[in-house]
Amino acid sequence: MSARPEVAFVVQRYGPDVTGGSEALARAVAARLSPTHRITVYTTCARDYVTWRNELPRGREESDGVVVRRFPVEEERDLDAFNAFSETLYDQPHTVEDELEWLRRQGPHVPQLVETLGEDADRFSAVVFFTYLYYPTYWGLKAAPERAILVPTAHDEPPLRFELYREVFALPRAFAFLTPAEERMVRRRFDLGARPALVAGMGVDVPEAPDVAALRARHGLDRPYVIYAGRIDAGKGCAEMLAFYGRYRQTVGEAPDLVLIGRLALPEALPPGVRYLGYLSEEEKAAAIAGAQVVVCPSPYESFSIVLLEGMALGVPGLVNAHSEVLKDHCLRSNAGLFYDDADEFGEALHLLVRGKALREALGANGRAYVRDHYRWDVVLDRWRALLDRAPSFAPQR
C-alpha cells in the first residue's frame, strides 16, 4: 500500500449518478488508477451543476477504491440571474474584479475545499485539476500550484477569453488534454511554454454485444432512427438540431426517427418524429446507440465527446457540428463521420448516411479502428501513469 503514490483529484462534482464530461473523466480515471495510485478526490456535496445544491453528505467516503472528500457549497446558483450577469461581461468592457465576481456566482463556491487542499497538498505527488472553468480550479491552483496538473477539458467559449483564465493556464506544472484539437486551441490562446503536456485522452468502454432487439422491444422502436445522447438543451446545440431535423423531415418522404436520451431541458414540445426515452442505464444506452443509423453530436462546444466515440466503437458513424473543432477533427482523423455547417449541410449529410448502408458500414469500420488504436483504456492509462510519474520532478515556475 505504501508504495502507491498519493495523488489528489479536484473536480466540482463526483459520483456514479453524476453526469458530465469532466466529472465522468475524473471518476473513470480515478477508479482505474486506484490499483497503482492512492487517489483522494476533493469535491463538493452537489449533484446538480445548475443549482449546486448540497444533496450528498459532507465528509469522507470510499468508492471504487478511491477516497472521496466532500465539502459543502456555500451558496446555490440562480441560473437565470447568473446568465443575465454573464451577458454583461461577454464581449463587453469589464474588470478582473467583475470576472472574479462572475466566478463566485458561477460556483461551486467552496472555500473550505480550497483551504483544506492547500493544507494537504504537500503529501501528494500530483494534484490533478479537472476542467479549467470552475471556482475549485481557479482558487485550488493558487492554493496548491506545486506538482499541479490541469486537465482543461476546454472548448472555444466566451469565458475562455477572460483574463482570469490566463492565471489558470499559467500556474500548472503540466497539462493533460483530451484531443490534439483541444491542445491546439489552448496553445493558440495561452502560452504554455515548454511545460510537459500530452494528449492523455479518455478510454471508451462499450459492451461487445449490446442487446438491440430487447431495447427496441422495450421502447417500441420499430422504425429506423438516429440518436442524440446527453443533456438536451439549447447550449448543447439541441434546439438547432431539432430545427434542422424538422426541416429535413419536410424535404424527404421517409425520414428516420430522432431518438433523444438524457436529461430534457428544453421548454418547448418536441416536434414530430422525435422520441424521448429519458435516462437509460449504460447497458441500454449502448444498445440504443448500437441500433442507430447515426449518432448526432450538435454541440459547437466540445472538448472530447464520449458519446461520439462510443458510437464509433460500436460501428455507428457520427454527424457532428463543424463549428466544434474537436468534433470535426475526430471525423477527419478517423474518417468515421460527417460534419455540417448549416441546415442544408445537415440535411444532405444525414440523407447520405441514412440512405447509404455501404457508406455507414465503411465509416463504422473506420470508427472501430480509430477507437481501438487511440482510446482503449490500456493505452489511455499508460499515458496517465507516465504523466503522474513525472509529477514529483516538475520544476517550480520562475
Structure notes:
41% of the residues lie in helices and 16% in strands. The protein has 398 residues and is an alpha/beta fold. It has an eight-stranded mixed sheet with strand order 3-4-2-1-5-6-7-8, with helices on both faces. The protein has a three-stranded parallel sheet with strand order 9-10-11, covered by helices on one side. Strands 12-13-14 form a three-stranded parallel sheet, with helices on both faces. Helix 1 links the parallel strand 1 and strand 2 (38-44). Helix 4 packs parallel to helix 5 (135-143), helix 8 crosses helix 10 and helix 11 packs across helix 14 (357-374). The longest helix has 18 residues, at 357-374. The model has no long low-confidence stretch (mean pLDDT 93).
Q: Give me the Rg, rounded.
A: 21 Å
Helical amount? 40-55%
CATH architecture of the largest domain: 3-Layer(aba) Sandwich
State which percent range the strand residues make up: 15-25%
Q: How many β-strands, per DSSP?
A: 14
Which stretches are poorly predicted, pLDDT < 50 over at least 5 residues? none
CATH fold category name of the largest domain = Rossmann fold
CATH class of the largest domain: Alpha Beta
| Alpha-beta classification | alpha/beta
Which series of helices and strands comes N to C? Answer: EHEEEHHHEHEHEHEHEHEEHEHEHEHHH
Query: Helix count?
Result: 15
Question: How far apart are the termini?
Answer: 35 Å
What about the largest sheet?
8 strands, mixed
Placed side by side, the strands forming the largest sheet appear as 3-4-2-1-5-6-7-8
Summarize the structure.
Helices cover 41% and strands 16% of the residues.
